[in-house]
Design a protein that fits this description.
Length: 495
Amino acid sequence: MKRILYLIIITLTLPYCNAFPGLDTISGTDAKKKILNAANSIDRISLGIVTGSYVSTSLVNLINTILVPAIISINNVKYYDKESVEDCVNKINSITGLILGGATTLPLCDIKEASFIDIGPLNIIDGKNAKVNDALAFFLLFGGDLGSSSGGNTTTPTPVPTTPAACTTSGATDGTIQQLSFSVVDAEYDLTSNRIILVDSANKFHYYNPSTNADTSLSLNYTPLNVTVSPDGTKAAVGHASNATLVNLPGASIAREVATGITAKDIAMSNTFVYISNANTTFSNVKSVTFSDGSINNHTGSTVYSNYLAYNSTGNSLYLADTGVTPVDIRKISTAANPPTYQYDSIYHGDYSICGPIWLTKDASKTFNSCLTAFTVSATQGSDIQYSGTLSSTSLLRITHLNTDSSRIFLIASNVNSSFIDTSKDSSEYVHRYNLSNLSFISKKTLPCYTTGGQSYKTEGKFIFVNSSSTEYYVIAKPDSTSGNQNDQIIKFPY
């Protein structure tokens, strides 16, 4: 039934949105992904909550009426006006509120085909990873290309010229660049060994020394989605769809593979247990996997929606940032015992901006989330998850990745929201530094340009880490996709 609801929501909102085409365009493939990402947050449970039943009779009738004549209008190989796609996403995001308000019809969308020169595809940014629900992808792809009601467009597309994303300046000159032979999917930093733990798109695990560029790699049997490392640096874990791989360090050998039965939205670990949140947009449990034997437990107490995780080793707890529910909240699960136990959420419900992912500061005094807000960390509920400030800056919209040492915040910014791009804000070509104590701005720098064939291209940061002695920091970055280089770089900067 959930798959049918997803299909109907997409069908209702694709054919008719009103917006004027502009110079910014988006490919059909990325437009579908963006709309699916919005539709992912509307499932039968959230609809059941606002209608007072699992699925209302009127909604069932609407499903029966729409299924037969439904035609999905987006063609994978064409380009579309970005504003019309964003407008459609906004309307999808408003569906739950409209039903709650008693609306009898859902908003319609009109995706406008681009009428100007394309300036490059839109990168979908959703915290650490951008994922499309497999079931929704199946529905959208069941008719082949889905470019027409006849079951697919077999016409060879006319190439659309793209403009390279040039650097805004020559970029920082104090960075040392190491070109990698792969694209990084996810990464974490081990402070005990000063190694970057990462997984790549070729299904490999890496134990990487950024000081010497020495790399110990390990082939994985499943596609990696995310990675984590234990506080003592002796273990790591990789999240997959339905599985988890547990890794012994520093030799990088597989300890065991565990069938979890869930797709890992995010993964974190203590020295003994691996914690995995469920990517499916339903209320569920965080899985606790015992490293030594692979046994699995569900957390007890209130179930949670799809969440990003941050592990607090000093407080034996997990902090969770919601995704897919309104209002978004920060929650806490105690890991002092196994299975873990749900404790509480914040006292705020829509008062402050919250969005995943979530990061814990090195001193475990605060959490930051992608929406720039900070909250306290405490063993006492009365002083825990209390609003602690916002990284105020006219140049910041979202955080792609964040790391701290004892005094400073280092972050990669993003100018992409879930439903729009704000070109007045800084993109991921910049590194920003802030004071941890008062959240005041220190400086920013542009990542070094990537140059090939006499053309310079913007470099986009993905992850940032500070070493244990606060003498260097490292940025994992990728050259702009128009450069032709699909592999990442590690850029080492002096502190």
